[in-house]
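I am still getting used to backbone structure tokens and would like to learn alongside you. To get us started, please write out a protein record for me. Once you have written the record down, we can walk along the chain together.
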Amino acid sequence: MANGKDALSYALSKFIFSSVEFSDEDSSRFWEKNIEDLDKISIDEDITNPAQKVKLIFADNKYYSNEKTPKVIIMNEEVSIKHPGEIILQASSGEDCARLLSISHIIAQRFSLPIYLILTIECLNQNLNLNPEHIPFPPKYIIRENSWEPDEIYANHPALSFKRIDYGKNRGPRDKSKILVISHGKNSLSVKKIISNSNESIRHLEIQTLRPISKEIVNQAMMSVKKTISIDETFYWLEQNNSIESLSLEQLAELIN
């Protein structure tokens, strides 16, 4: 069965970058071992519009670039909240490995900035629900040379707010839920397993944009919910809110099972 690595390989075959680089030998060894045909990624060194010259960099979680040019920086480890990147995305499923690469390429152009994309080994190894070629990508971003200028970053920008909400089996946004669980990244995979064994009415918000996080998205998910819980690792990224309780995965499992 295809997994997140296959999804990423497929997505890498669909985009053109101005260059492909590795931040160090460790990053080079990891990605060349896990992703096939990295040397076949399409490169165009003669792109005329600077805004369309997107570099692809494979790096570790300490890497940072303050150069204000379009880049997609892929890391296989989570970053600290102290990481200075202005836009940080993190996959929470195998499909995200492809979908968020596509999104990262687009927003690198729209904001003319480095986009940090975290693809943990757990998501890279997760089996897909779809064949890689059936994962929906957003339409390509077209830059009009005479009018283009970078977008401004704000938390509710529609090009930056990515999440997934599971309202529960046969339930929707208007149904009341006992608990909302907020998670991100590989912890979302663990939360799904915990929730699947529960008989409670539980809503699950998976955040894929760690920076900037939209407060409105969180508040909307909290509507019609009695109790809101965030996994500890996610809680640090959220704006302080006395209505949200922070728990470990073990504490969550004890609470709802």
